[in-house]
């Protein structure tokens, strides 16, 4: 079943009329997407990826994943931003946020290289002691400092434990097909490589080897993920301008025009927390530029109703919500009957937790709506590979359309360079002497 945008809870607010006003811009965005003619059109490989992927590479990924499962207790994924968030989202969604602690036949999976925290790296290394380990370093550019440092440390650890031949069975690099320091390192050491397609940016790359190798290692069926994305792609393009991803893009722009500058992506399933992190990067990096864009935030309900709920209900009115909702009951747990009923829960004894969650969802939605926070609902059927692929494709297409409507290039991220420039200057990186001088003058003034 395709992903569905449910807008029935919006009521008859101004947003509907305003969304219609963006139709000409949507038509233009759709043309840019279909003809691959918009800004950043050298990064639109993700559009056809679910039907036009390297079959040989996917077969190799499955073989490698099976080998890793057979010879490793721990699989360490090194990457930052688009080079890890999608894989983490998939593993939590398809397996569990507690994946590493549940009983399973597949390796534990740790993500490092997404910060400069030395203690995080050392902790993972200490967890590797006495266990068999494999490593996947993921970096399109091959030069991202966080990942490069973590890989340098991890490589040295792996070298202290394994022979050169064994390292070749245990270290995998996902990077550009031809260039970059990581590609060079991998080739020099004989590590097997996987490709981040040239025409796909990090945050749009989860359905490439970037996401597929770690996802396959956790035991998920990557063919089904690709099939879900392909089915969603077909359904969306077949529906033309009125497709649900485009509708979502229209509403987002209408909300923004109405002063709703913050979108909270919420879910009532904790297993979607990492998906919301992936979504934040997708929309934040794609739209937040040229002084424009919705600030993407996230929440997991009902836990965050006990922390952020007060603000959402009652704080500054600049919010709208998009709830990612599962339509099929995924768990049979029911509220037990208790003779003593000290906790006064017998009025819902026999109700499934799924139904209780549904009531929490509906109750919250109307409370927030009454409080001036309207909600869209994005519906998927169940937590399986097919839905994951479909959700990824839905949000990628919506994001591209929404950014084009907004009038920005969805596929670049010029703002990310600013912190790097200052950090390199402070670290004394060769080539940053002038920046260092200017920055130190500012700091010391
Ligand atoms: O979406 C993006 O392009 C970024 O988030 C990158 O994925 C991130 O900066 C990591 O870059 P790289 O894969 O080159 O190490």
What does this structure look like?
The protein has 445 residues and is an alpha/beta fold. It has helices at residues 14-21, 23-35, 55-71, 85-94, 118-128, 145-161, 164-170, 181-189, 209-217, 222-238, 244-257, 273-287, 309-314, 353-370, 385-406, 417-427, 433-444; strands at residues 4-6, 74-78, 108-112, 133-139, 171-175, 192-195, 262-267, 295-300, 319-326, 375-380. Helix 1 (14-21) crosses helix 11, helix 3 (55-71) runs parallel beside helix 9 and helix 10 packs across helix 15 (385-406). The protein is globular and about 65 Å long. The termini are far apart. It binds 5-phosphoarabinonic acid.
Write the topology of this structure.
Elements: E1 4-6, H1 14-21, H2 23-35, H3 55-71, E2 74-78, H4 85-94, E3 108-112, H5 118-128, E4 133-139, H6 145-161, H7 164-170, E5 171-175, H8 181-189, E6 192-195, H9 209-217, H10 222-238, H11 244-257, E7 262-267, H12 273-287, E8 295-300, H13 309-314, E9 319-326, H14 353-370, E10 375-380, H15 385-406, H16 417-427, H17 433-444
Parallel strand pairs: 2-3, 2-4, 4-5, 5-6, 7-8, 7-9, 9-10
Antiparallel strand pairs: 1-10
Helix pairs in contact: 1-11, 2-15, 3-9, 4-9, 4-12, 10-15, 11-15, 12-15, 16-17
The structure holds 5-phosphoarabinonic acid (PA5).
5-phosphoarabinonic acid binds at residues 80-83, 139-141, 144, 147, 201-203, 285, 413.
């Amino acid at each position: 079943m395709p992903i569905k945008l449910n807008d029935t809870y919006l009521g008859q607010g101004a947003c509907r009329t305003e969304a219609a006003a963006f139709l000409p811009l949507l038509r233009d965005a759709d043309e840019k997407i279909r003809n691959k003619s918009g800004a950043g059109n050298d990064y639109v490989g993700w559009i056809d990826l679910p039907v036009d992927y390297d079959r040989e590479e996917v077969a190799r990924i499955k073989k490698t994943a099976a080998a890793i499962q057979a010879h490793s207790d721990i699989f360490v994924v090194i990457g930052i931003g688009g080079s890890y968030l999608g894989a983490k989202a998939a593993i939590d969604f398809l397996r569990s946020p507690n994946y590493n602690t549940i009983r399973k036949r597949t390796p534990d999976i740790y993500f490092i290289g997404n910060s400069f925290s030395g203690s995080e790296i050392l902790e993972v290394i200490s967890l590797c002691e006495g266990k068999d380990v494999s490593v996947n370093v993921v970096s399109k550019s091959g030069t991202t400092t966080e990942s490069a440092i973590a890989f340098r440390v991890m490589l040295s650890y792996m070298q202290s434990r394994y022979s050169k031949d064994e390292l070749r069975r245990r270290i995998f690099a996902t990077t550009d097909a031809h260039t970059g320091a990581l590609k060079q390192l991998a080739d020099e050491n004989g590590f097997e490589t996987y490709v981040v397609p040239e025409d796909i940016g990090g945050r749009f790359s989860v359905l490439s080897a970037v996401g597929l190798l770690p996802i396959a290692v956790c035991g998920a069926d990557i063919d089904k993920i690709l099939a879900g994305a392909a089915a969603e792609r077909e359904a969306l393009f077949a529906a033309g301008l009125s497709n649900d991803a485009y509708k979502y893009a229209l509403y987002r722009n209408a909300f923004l025009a109405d002063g709703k500058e913050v979108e909270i992506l919420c879910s009532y399933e904790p297993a979607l927390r990492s998906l919301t992190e992936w979504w934040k990067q997708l929309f934040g990096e794609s739209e937040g530029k040229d002084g424009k864009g919705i600030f993407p935030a996230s929440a997991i309900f009902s836990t965050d109703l006990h922390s952020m709920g007060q603000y959402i209900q009652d704080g500054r009115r600049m919010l709208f919500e998009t709830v990612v909702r599962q339509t099929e009951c995924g768990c049979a747990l029911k509220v037990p009957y208790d003779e003593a009923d000290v906790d006064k829960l017998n009025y819902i004894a026999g109700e499934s937790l799924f139904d209780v969650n549904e009531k929490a969802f509906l109750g919250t939605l109307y409370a927030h709506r009454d409080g001036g926070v309207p909600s869209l609902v994005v519906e998927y059927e169940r937590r399986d590979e097919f839905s994951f692929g479909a959700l990824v494709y839905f949000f990628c297409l919506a994001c591209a359309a929404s950014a084009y409507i907004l009038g920005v290039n969805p596929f670049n991220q010029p703002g990310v360079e600013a912190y790097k420039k200052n950090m390199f200057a402070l670290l004394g990186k060769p080539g940053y002497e002038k920046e260092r001088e200017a920055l130190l003058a500012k700091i010391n003034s």
